[in-house]
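[step 3/7] fold_predict: job queued, chain A
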Amino acid sequence: MRTLQDLEVLSGKRVLVRVDFNVPLDGQGNVADDMRIRETLPTLHELMRRGARLVLVSHLGRPRGREPEYSLAPVAERLSALLDKKVKLAPGVVGEAVTNLVDELRPGELLLLENVRFEAGETKNDPELAARLAALADVYVNDAFGVCHRTHVSTVGVARLLPHAAGLLVQREVETLREITENPPRPLVAILGGSKVSEKIKVIERFLRIADAVLIGGAMSFPFLAAQGHGVGISLCSDDDAELAAGLLAMPEAKAGQLLLPVDLVAAESFSADTAPVGIDGLDVPDGMMGLDIGPRTVARYAACIAEAGSVFWNGPMGAFELVPFAAGTRGVADAMAAAPGITVVGGGDSAAAVHQFGLAARMTHVSTGGGAALELIEGRQLPGIEVLS
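[step 4/7] structure written:
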């Protein structure tokens, strides 16, 4: 993978930087969480130091057209504050007005293009749009790991038309996630939660083959419990997921004790912060109730595994952590990882949101900015946005 070190003279060059500024807004026209913006600042600072003229491209949400609520205007304002430098927002993605603004850039200045998904050809990897976007730059840099698993114009199409490299964030993401699967300090512990087995079956299979222990939590644990004959009440558990879980339980590694399931649970009558949590010292959820968190004995068991690990990978919450009565399991795992002596990697998505919510992100070795991209890389898939940077 080509990196910024492989790029030669950048002074005065127009550099198109794919960033991931798909950040939440507060409904008042302000950025609610600027973590993804801050993560790409090292790349922007390095390119500015080398005298590049920066043209930034990003998406925001999933617009169907050019809805004003998906404009990157709040992002341009927040980025300007973080850089202490004016960042202009272009009126579109391509076109004469955009070209004129790019031509006016001086070394070290930045222009943020409007939401790239305002162009219908972006997600279709349209070659005409790729050519028009590439015409705005001399060099392409991808620093948006969260979309590297997408074959879009801004991740693949443009990269094929320009000299290219990975930004510092993408480089760190790829190197860290490859290390955790290819050469991790042992023991390697994988903690996997979330909602559906079907969404993470390849990840579970991979870790069962390469990890020393795989700890299951969240709603994903109920298909495993159902496959073992336990009652799951009205917990999130489809027949298809239970069948997939049964197949995983039949793997030699699972039979050898590498797959750990909860030993106690926290349930409730409804998915609500106002409902009364009920501790279950066992694995059978009563009829009419749903499991919403792992119990304290499970937290202690998982924390002990984490404390002894040489490296830990975590993706997926242990329960409905967004509801205060059911956040203890996720918080317990996060606290254990923050205190762990080994390498700790949080694989994006809700797990990343949780450690940021708990104020523990800085105590992790690495918090990935890409949920889906991180999981596909863990599975061993080729990510189009990374492959094209070779």
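[step 5/7] annotate
The chain has two domains: 4-171, 184-379.
The chain is about 35% helix and 15% strand.
exit 0
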